[in-house]
Amino acid sequence: MKKTLIVVDMQNDFVDMALGTAEAVQIVPKVKQKIEEYRKNGYEIIYTRDTHLDDYLETAEGRKLPVKHCIKGTKGWEIVDGLYVEGCKIIDKPNFGWPHWDREVLEDVQIIGLCTDICVVSNALIIKATFPDAAVSVDSACCAGVTVESHNAALKTMAMCQIDVM
User: 132-156, pLDDT tens digit by residue?
Assistant: First the structure.
């Protein structure tokens, strides 16, 4: 069975810049270790990158979250130093969940990254709905939410939808 690690939005703006949190900073070493484990075993690694343009504040999301972040080409948009494995696929997604996971072959998927309660849960649910027979898991130690409470609520939601929460 093909194993894939999906690293969701481990970008500077979500770790220690515009929308960063202490919890996000704390998971970086664990995320790095998980990526290295998958790399050493020759498994597939896919990164997602939240990607907005200069007109972000005029978008539907920008009107509800009026904090410019992950603007394409900025330092905040970049993946945190030391996490990207050269040659791995990067998906630039303009919103919470990538609707085109059906373009991938996903059989045994583990999801890590930011934010548990927004983009991680969105992508996990899309993947599980698209590939109902796939093994889909989330490593909670390699995720952080906007708040600890919303992180835990998202983990519960995913578990209720037959996503294995570790």
Answer: 999 999 999 999 999 999 999 999 9
44-50 and 89-93 strand pairing = parallel
What count of other Cβ atoms lies within 10 Å of the Cβ of residue 12? 20
Phi/psi-derived region of residue 13, left when phi > 0, alpha when psi is between -120 and 50, beta in every other case: alpha
Classify residue 147 by burial, with Cβ atoms within 10 Å: 0-12, 13-18, 19+. middle
Is 27 in contact with 144 (CB distance < 8 Å)? yes
List, for residues 92-139, the tens digit of each pLDDT value: 999 999 999 999 999 999 999 999 999 999 999 999 999 999 999 999
For residues 140 and 145, give the distance between their C-alpha atoms in angstroms, rounded to a whole number. Answer: 10
> For the chain, what is the mean pLDDT?
97
Could you count the other beta carbons within 10 Å of the beta carbon of residue 26? Answer: 12
Domain ranges of the chain: 3-165
Distance CA 69, CA 146 (A): 14
pTM over 0.90: yes
- What's domain 3-165's architecture? 3-Layer(aba) Sandwich (3.40)
